[in-house]
Write a structure and sequence with these properties.
Layout (H helix, E strand, L loop, with lengths): L13 E5 L26 H14 L3 E5 L9 H10 L3 E6 L6 H9 L4 E6 L4 H8 L4 H14 L4 E7 L7 H11 L3 E6 L5 H4 L1 H4 L3 H17 L5 E5 L19 E4 L5 E2 L20 H7 L1 H4 L25 H8 L15 H14 L4 E3 L5 E3 L1
Parallel strand pairs: 1-2, 1-8, 2-3, 3-4, 4-5, 5-6, 6-7
Antiparallel strand pairs: 8-9, 10-11
The protein binds iron/sulfur cluster and FE2/S2 (inorganic) cluster.
Length: about 375
């Protein structure tokens, strides 16, 4: 088989909007870019509403209202209402902090379809420490209760790493106790902020394998009650994941200031110009922005991806990880065992998981460091 030119892109399925980078938490694995955008640069409500209307007209099906903490926006109810009235399925991705029963009810009445609530640990001490927010445990649990009371489907999101991997079984119990329909057990993806914490967060492979066995057993036990999705650590995988569903294929991210991105870390790749929704319609961006075309399809690929039978399954993995770990975004994601860099990164992961380097850098507008 040979690589071929990409056909004109189908419409994006979803839109992920980072409404703000403001956030009460300080997660060690924060997926927002290293340079956070300040509140003064955020899009105003009318511009966000125009973006939602354009997304629906373009054919998108859902919008993830994310951040930072999206409810830090005072107009979150208004924005949710407009997204819903535009015909988009609306998902709120939240820390749950600051979302009381009244606000939850208002969001539901505005048309919110789904809530995704993060936990940093499966008990109070671990959760509050790893999220760097005292009292967040009680607030998160209260928000979960408001969501269930309002009749909204709830997903619990647990990002896993060396400091909480031993709690996978407890996360499953927590999700069942809270009445969630779905639990995401997602191992940390090591780019951006998480890359700076990699030596402290990388788990040993044996512990990862044990956590996979726990999840598989729970899937059988809880069939029909709780769906459990699991993302395993890239570095121990045989094949990479199709990051963002493939560059410029299914999703558009929009940053707080309106930059449209093919994935949340795209700005780490030099030489790409990302158009802003203030100046361009989403349709124009999707069809014409060279940055969205840069790694769309298979034409850009080198070996081993270029002739690989999986090239339209994982689309070569993650461009941002390829850049961060090999120095070139056009290389195969080194999570792939066919990548010439794979052995080196697995060896690095194993060494770091044994290193005992416990320096944790919490995310904040001002870096917080705890040794
Ligand atoms: Fe995916 Fe490239 Fe690895 Fe093939 S060689 S499995 S396309 S990353
Ligand atoms: Fe950018 Fe994976 S995060 S392609």
């Amino acid at each position: 088989m040979t690589a071929h030119s990409p056909p004109p892109p189908a419409p994006p399925i979803g839109l992920l909007v980072e409404l703000t980078h403001r956030c009460p938490l300080g997660c060690l694995y924060c997926s927002n870019p290293l340079a956070l955008e300040r509140p003064g640069a955020e899009l105003d409500g009318e511009t966000w509403k125009r973006v939602f209307s354009q997304a629906a007209a373009l054919g998108a099906l859902h919008v993830h209202l994310s951040g930072g903490e999206p409810t830090a926006r005072r107009d979150i109810v208004d924005l949710t209402r407009h997204a819903s009235q535009s015909g988009l399925y609306t998902n709120l991705i939240t820390s749950g902090i600051g979302v009381n029963e009244k606000l939850t009810q208002e969001l539901v009445e505005a048309g919110l379809d789904h809530a995704q609530l993060s936990f940093q640990g499966a008990d109070k001490e671990t959760n509050d420490r790893l999220g760097h927010y005292k009292g967040s445990w009680e607030r998160k649990r209260a928000f979960a209760a408001h969501v269930i009371k309002a009749g909204l489907p709830l997903t619990i999101n647990a990002v896993i790493h060396r400091a909480n991997l031993h709690q996978v079984a407890a996360f499953i119990d927590l999700a069942v106790e809270l009445g969630a329909r779905r639990l995401e057990v997602a191992h940390t993806q090591y780019y951006g902020w998480a890359l700076a914490n990699r030596a402290a967060l990388m788990p040993p492979k044996k512990q990862v394998d044990e956590s996979i066995a726990i999840v598989e057993a729970a899937r059988v036990r809880l069939k029909g009650e709780l769906v459990i999705d699991m993302v395993v650590p890239d570095y121990y995988a045989r094949y990479p994941k199709p990051c963002a569903g493939g560059w410029g294929r299914v999703a558009i991210n929009v940053s707080p200031s309106g930059k449209a991105l093919p994935c949340h870390a795209a700005e780490s790749i030099p030489g790409l110009e990302f158009w802003n929704v203030r100046d361009h319609s989403l349709s124009d961006i999707w069809l014409s922005n060279p940055a969205f075309k840069a790694f769309r399809g298979t034409e850009w690929m080198r070996e081993p991806c270029r002739s690989c039978e999986r090239r339209e399954i994982d689309w070569g993995g993650c461009r941002c990880q390829a850049l961060a770990l090999t120095g070139d975004a056009r290389n195969a994601d080194p999570a792939c065992h066919k990548s010439p860099d794979h052995e080196r990164i697995v060896a690095t992961a194993m060494a770091e998981s044994e290193s005992g380097d416990g320096v944790l850098r919490w995310r904040s507008y001002k870096e917080k460091v705890e040794a």
